[in-house]
Amino acid sequence: MQRADLADFLRHRREAIRPAEVGLADGPRRRTAGLRREEVAMLAGMSVDYVVRLEQGRSSQPSTQMLGALARALRLSDDERDHLFHLAGHRPPPADGVARLARAGLVRMLDLLGDTPALVLSDLGEVLAQNRASHLLTGDHTGFSGDRRYVVYRWFTDPATRAVCPPDEQEHQARQIVADLRATAGRRSADPVVAGLVDRLQAASADFRRLWAEHEVAVRRAARKTLLHPRVGRLLLDCETLVTPDQRQQLLVLTPADTETRERLDLLRVLGIEDFPMKATGTPER
């Protein structure tokens, strides 16, 4: 761990970001154009004290999870992110397998989308980053661990995840999720991460085994779906998926499909976040 260089790098990257780039107001009392340490801590989900100690070269070695959070908060490019990992004494995330850190360009797009709910997902359906509008709509889905990171695993093992989808749409949704996983498994046929996930799903869910055996394949690009929200009711959403060239990450954008849904989303922005029931379970399956 190169503490002095790490501290210097983090300070310079923090000072180089304008608040508007991460969805924060500039405000009249700012003494610098960059972010405050408190704002980096908020964006990264860590304590201000730890950010201070990192920038002063007094911290313990940060975990790879903390480095990933800092890379997202500071909107680091892929090269800058890898440099951050090297300075902290860690090997950067591998280029192969599941990309566990959202690409910097996609994170910037989340900021630019503003009040439009949007998420960055891996090709296995792990939520890597969300904007505030997405948090309001579905809760925070970046903190899962183990197999629960994956949309498909939660769908087939946690009834509460399916509860956000109307009962008459659940079979269609399940088929879409499995068909998309089948397409990913085909592209990554030698990847033990994908094979292991499929094996564990077949062991955990008879419903998954049934659908997997049908060999349906379909990469989802766009869809219209209904979300049952506990605070504002039924929402009809158009879901548009933009895929990176290597097909390992996706930007999912959710827009209202009718006037009623638009009005309810406006109401949700006014209500804000208050003990959202789906925080630990639900997600807007693509």
Give the overall pLDDT as a whole number: 84
Structural class: alpha+beta
Number of domains: 2
Poorly predicted regions:
275-286
Q: What's the architecture of the largest domain in CATH terms?
A: 2-Layer Sandwich
Principal-axes shape call: globular
Most strands sheet: 5 strands, antiparallel
Pattern of helices and strands: HHHHHHEEHHHHHHEEEH
Rg: 20 Å
In percent, how much strand structure appears in the residues? 5-15%
Adjacency order of strands in the biggest sheet:
2-1-5-4-3
Euclidean distance between termini CA atoms = 40 Å
The name CATH uses for the topology of the largest domain is Beta-Lactamase
Characterization of the model:
The chain is an alpha+beta fold and 286 residues long. The chain folds into two domains: 85 residues, 434 Repressor (Amino-terminal Domain); 177 residues, Beta-Lactamase. The chain is 45% helix and 13% strand. The protein has 13 helices and five strands. Strands 2-1-5-4-3 form a five-stranded antiparallel sheet, with helices on both faces. Strand 3 and strand 4 form a beta hairpin. Helix 2 packs across helix 4.
